Amino acid sequence: MSVICLMLLVPSRRTITRDIHVVYIEELSKLKTFIKKHSQRISLTTYTWTCIKQVNYMCLTVHFIDDEWKLQKRILNFCPIVGHKSEDVGKGVEKCLLEWGFDNIFTITVDNASSNNGAITYLTKIFDHWGTNLLGGKYMHVRCVAHIVNLIVQDGLKNKEEHLAISRIRGAVRYIRNSSARLQKFKECVASRKLDSKNLLCLDVPTRWNSTYLMLEAAITLKSAFDAYDDINFGYRTELSKGDGVPLSYDWERATLLSKFLRHFYYLTVRISGSLYVTSNNIFSEISEMDLLLKEWSESDDFELNAMGKRMKEKFVRYWGAIEKMNKDMFYEVILDPRRKNGFLNFSTESVYDDGIGNEKSLALKDQVKRDFEELFAKYKSDYATTTQACGMPSTGSIGSSTSLSSVASKSLIEKFNKRFGGKKSESSKSELDKYISGGLEDDHEEFDILA
């Protein structure tokens, strides 16, 4: 730059480093002030992994709703940690919170590694010492729903026949994609078969079932092009025979079934993984819908679907088999959705508990949720009502941040509920919470946003 402009004095690298650090400190101070000013309680998500160089990392993200009822998300820290043991994770989170000066934690979402249970226990004790542990940490531990769904699907894919069908299609895709000439020839086959498909061949990552779904979706629509390519390329069959072989008609049938099976869980994962809009109010309905779906598969006359459904149901029961043992914050979010409230909670639990005593279990759960929710509401009211309007409920108008992703959802349970209870009114009660719960339901539509 000094050659282009002789009057420009280029600062040294030390000066640039110092200036960058000054800007960082200023922005850090602004962000700390913003979060403390605009949040009563914050929720955290933490994720740990080991890179290819065997260095352990942790990412800590904060989520909160500001004074204008807007969902906020910020990454607090991205740092190396000693290891993945419970104490290492717990101390890593503690250190970060001390640096930021945050102690008003509501929930911490973690995956289902056993070490995270110990980390939550460690942090619960720390927050107790700080005197900021909300109701003894009753709602702190939140299990990552997407991670549980991943474990359930992985169990469903353990059958050897599924593995062989996927492996053969993966081999065919890899063979074609490994050469630009082969890929060009394959595109000519697509054109010759007049396939009206915008899907391109994509190779999956075997350990990530969602990428396997995308690979199968693309390959299935191009099946006839694979057949045409086999007719004109003699090396195709020869090369694939060295591995698992060329995909057979039975493999394509299995792949089609698997694709339909994976589609539900793929879009479910997409919906619950949103970070720019609220998803927590839909978690319980998604879990209930999944339970009903797995029950249907487990009772199917199709042997393969039946076996797959039973394997997945076993894993499902391990984490969500007892609704009454789930983090009850999940139920409060349903109640705070003005389209659902208590009615949907009762309706869905009765649908899930179909063993003849569903109504009894549903009523017991309803009573317990009501007591615990009133306790949480009273705690918030005593802590925040003097300085904010915390005892007021969010307005129930419509908003548009949930976006069209919600339209992809399987809504059979929700649709049944809307037909039965939509628009019904009930008597008002004394407390602010009871008045909200007993009020009428809002109309359900794609553009609805719970934070409006």
What this model shows, in words?
This protein is α/β, with parallel strands linked by helices and 452 residues long. Helix content is 56%, strand content 8%. The chain is built from 17 helices and 5 strands. The chain has a 5-stranded mixed beta sheet. β2 and β3 form a beta hairpin. α5 crosses α7 (209-221). The longest helix has 27 residues, at 358-384. The two termini are 51 Å apart.
Please tally the β strands and state the result.
Answer: 5
Q: Which geometry do the CA atoms define? A: globular
Overall structural class, as computed from helix and strand content, comes to alpha/beta
Strand order across the biggest sheet? Answer: 3-2-1-4-5
Which bin fits the share of residues in helices? 55-70%
> How many helix segments?
17
Strand fraction band?
Answer: 5-15%
Short description, anyone?
The protein has helices at residues 13-37, 86-100, 114-130, 145-156, 160-177, 180-192, 209-221, 223-232, 234-240, 249-272, 280-298, 303-320, 329-335, 341-352, 358-384, 412-421, 432-438; strands at residues 42-50, 56-65, 71-80, 105-110, 141-143. A hairpin with a 5-residue loop joins strand 1 and strand 2 (56-65). With 452 residues, it is α/β, with parallel strands linked by helices.
